């Protein structure tokens, strides 16, 4: 017999950047059964669902979320009360219909996602199963290979580095715990390498070091130094990049390293980097509307590197279908708040998988202690997760949750073998 939603409560809490965000509690049979907090991005794609902010410059610098919180407490709560908590698709479809806009602008994607995730947690609790197992529908899970963002640039750091994320991928290990250990040791080794060269400063939004460098390629050189300095080889640990090229794309081209480059020149640069460094994955190597550039990059380099669409696809099936049709990218980044509900997220992931694309589950730069994405990565067998450096509790909480899950789930394999 199903348990029924008897109420939703919502409040404003703070994310890792000290900005307001939405937390939602789901009550089942008048008991608190599920809670979730919504993350927030900095380098957001223009096609993402709307994150509703109050816009009152006298409070929270205009970033308040009281309207979104009220939407959960009233319209969304009234809609969902009486629904079966384990009918996630019906819950999400009801909210989508109530909102009635293409980008969640009536209710706010942050309000809708908070409710969607809280109900997901409550559904797992009502069935007395771990969240990852509830997401998987009872199937076996798979531990993801982590992408640890240990050198930050772009919109995530106050430095001159254009590339937003330099990540290590410990893919050649027999367990998640061993892979994570390698990533942590490489993180600390990078600190030593930067300190030796007088470049050790602060860290970026995702916990990685944020040095000023003479050129973006120097970031790759430091990654190799850190991997090898920690005693590992590039056979077992590779590099993943989130270029976030939309952030430095202008009408006249891509502004990088003091130069202005065309799409073709960007593709040529990536080819040279792939020849010289152990790069396994390139995310957002071109702008969010540069479909021709994406197609050219995938055609030329897709056979030897994972090409991940983030701003390009924004976890939305319609844009992903367009990319599949023209051969732009071979993987999708998965950010639940880009689309606004659990159901739409899973639909996009299934579309990717059924067309031979990889899925990479991802955090946002504005994170919280919420660990839902760890369970999502395992339950969907995505195989990859990016959730920042092994530093700062908003990032480490996900790794710690994955360590807990790994006590039950042993399957850990490289997506690149």
Describe this structure in words.
This protein has 417 residues and is an alpha/beta fold. The protein has 13 helices and 14 strands. Strand 10 (279-283), helix 8 and strand 11 form a beta-alpha-beta unit. The longest helix is centred in the middle third of the chain and has 21 residues, at 176-196. The relative contact order is 0.15. The mean pLDDT is 95.
Topology:
Elements: E1 5-14, E2 20-28, E3 31-37, H1 66-80, H2 88-99, H3 109-126, H4 131-136, E4 145-152, E5 165-170, H5 176-196, H6 216-229, E6 237-242, E7 249-250, E8 253-256, E9 259-261, H7 263-276, E10 279-283, H8 291-301, E11 306-309, H9 317-326, E12 331-334, H10 336-339, H11 342-354, E13 358-362, H12 372-379, E14 384-386, H13 393-406
Parallel strand pairs: 4-14, 6-10, 10-11, 11-12, 12-13, 13-14
Antiparallel strand pairs: 1-2, 2-3, 4-5, 5-6, 7-8, 8-9
Helix pairs in contact: 1-3, 2-3, 5-6, 7-8, 9-11, 12-13
Overview features:
globular, 38% helix, 417 residues, alpha/beta, 3-stranded antiparallel sheet, single chain, 8-stranded mixed barrel
